[in-house]
Amino acid sequence: FYDGKLMVISIEKTNKLVTELYPFLEEKPILSVEIDSEEAYLFLGNSIGNVCIYQINQDISQWKKIYLKTEHYNKISHIHCNSDLNLWVSTSINGFIYLYTLPLCKLARTIQISTKKCSYSFLSCSPLPSIIIVNDEANNSEILVYSINGKLITKQELYFRLINPIIIKDLNSNDFLCYIGKGSIYIYSLPYLDLRANIDVQQDEEIFNI
């Protein structure tokens, strides 16, 4: 909900068990939600830069708040967790990216980029552990790839706004960055952003989601 309340609904219980959680002291909007691939942790980021982590229990009435992180000072635009690396990353819209360990949630790395809008950051583990940062401004988007130790690997500037970036895997578990741009779907191998596919659609069609 817009006032910072989270509602968890069981779809397996016949009585539709509902639990209402209030992750933050401030009644601010929750902007980012992430669950790790093992479904052990729930990550929530709000509009004033706080991140709350719950430990997920099969009984939704027993979910336990285990961490509240307050390093960010601007609204959280994205959170991504990689269980293979035992790391998670949080992104604030003003260009600060914080890398944390899992499950101890110790701050491992800080990356600051000079941008007006930082919308996404992802963790990739294969073929090289890396952090992918996406700025999706209207006519000046950019993608930056850093190694886990904070070294810039590559940077790509775009003259259009990219939409809905995601990380996908091939049959060998190698990671690829996939996004929509100007009516096409682009797929890049990681970490060096080599173009692997550019899938065009009809001229009058627009894609909104992958």
> Can you summarize the main beta sheet?
4 strands, antiparallel
Q: Tell me the distance between the termini.
A: 25 Å
Calculate the mean pLDDT score and round it.
90
Task: Summarize the helix and strand pattern as letters.
Answer: EEEEEEEEEEEEEEEEEE
Main sheet strand line-up: 3-4-5-6
User: Strand content of the residues, in percent?
Assistant: over 45%
- Principal-axis shape equals globular
Give the low-pLDDT segments: none
Helix proportion: under 10%
Radius of gyration: 18 Å
Can you describe what's shown?
This protein is an all-beta fold. Helices cover 0% and strands 52% of the residues. It has a 4-stranded antiparallel sheet, with no helix packed on it. The radius of gyration is 18 Å and the shape is globular. The relative contact order is 0.10.
